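SAMPLE LOG
Freezer: B-3
Tube label: C17
Construct: single chain, 568 aa
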Amino acid sequence: MLVWLLVGCSLMLMLVRIGLPFGIKSEGVTVATVSLTYREKLLLHRTNLYAFGALLLLGAIGKWFTTPVEVVLVLVALGVINLPVRYYFPTKGIACNNVLFRKWKEFEYARYHRAKLTLMPRKGFGSLPLYVLASRQDEVLPYFQRFLQVREEAPPPFMKRSLMMWLRRRLSLIAIMSLLAISLVFLLSACGEGPDASGLNTANQSNLTTTSANGTPMTQQQLSTAKTQEPFAYNLALLVDENRLGINFVWTLVTGYLVMFMQAGFALVETGLCRAKNAGHTMAMNFMIYGLGMIGYFICGFAFQNGGVGIAGVPSLGGLSALTKELAIPIGGTNWGIIGYKGFFLSDGTYDVGIAVMFLFQMVFMDTTATIPTGAMAERWKWSAFCVYGFFVSTLVYPVFANWAWGGGWLSQLGAIGLGKGYIDFAGSGVVHAVGGWCGLAGAIVLGSRLGKYNRDGSSNTIPGHNLVFALLGCFILAFGWFGFNPGSTLGASGNGALRIGIIAVNTMLAGAFGSVAAMGYTWLSGAKKPDIGMMGNGLLAGLVAITAPSGYVSPLFASITSVSLPG
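STRUCTURE (predicted):
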């Protein structure tokens, strides 16, 4: 985990030299702007690049990263360097993008030597190093001469410089190199293949000690006896386990594909219920949240959520024994999990067939959470803010809560202090839909209502959707995808009661039907001249959300009652 923290810090230091989310405002009227060339940007990031290169070199020596990951990291670093950097010349100071602004009165003169231009400070202020290639100095230096005297002079010899000034200028490099030195001591584990990258070794007779068809699993003693006395039966058990895992893998993957297709449903529902002028923006958000969320989850979200899930084990997928890193606080004999820390980029010993299945299934669940706020904040969301949100929710918000509930975290351990069986959420009413809803609510509170929604006297206006055909078609797609959402949460179709998938599917189907009918009846009977089409679709979705958490534990009758209670 420390390795990835160092990588993230190195890239973050490079990013904050280019732009900040809330930025620093310059003062005065800008009279000129100069864009840096690629070579000048390399000089600007030189210190960070040295640290980043040292980190990758140590990673290659210690096999912390696979070759593809190192290539991706290099490309990301080069991409960050290539981001635009500009010097701005306002009348009151000098600015660099939105990360720096210094007033002219803080400097005495400007000194240049080769490609380095240093604004020399007055007493009580610090110098400002800038970079301008010699070939461009005739073009750029006149802008500085408007405000400062410019001199060509070499810097003093190293030994004559202030030691504190030298340390201050290289503080970031010293800090990163210190962390790298510490990592050499503590990071001894290689980051290579997982237990079974080929799919040839996951099946094992011992897996059957955690699996049963009638509630009573085999014991290790029975397997040991069979190995010595009935070798045919013992080897047959291996084929049984491989077939069981094959069934479970296929089931989990196919249901994951169904959940992925729910993205199209969300896109149609939200686009159909917004105004025509914003349809493209709304559809684009639903399209891009899939890619943004997946990348964020791949980088660190999966590790934070499921880095320790293998401690308890997932028998239906072969145990996932590589995922055994969970930051936990031991209290009262129970390890209260806070966050996982294994599975970054799926490369640190997690290149495994079972883990890949788990990643795909959990990733599409995360993307469902990430998609919900795109509807809550539709028609008033800045694109750059949406992109930041996409990474934030997929790397931190959803993974942390999902770890607490499903990854062996503290919520799932509440049964240890007498609170029933702990936090139970079969398929995600809380983990997925509530988290997405809370994110959407927070964003809607910050952004406020759509323009034209409320009058000055506080009364509200109906803003009809521009295409209800889209909206209801999207609802149908979502209802179809929910057959992957709920039954797929068994993570298998063989062993340990997984045959209950049929009941879960029926519960899901009934919940949607009862929810839509209840919403239609409520709007009709509450004074409307005819049923509200949009509310019918929302009632269907509300019923499905209501049954998601208990779908694996209730009968069809109670599933119907549960679905009516929410939309009604």
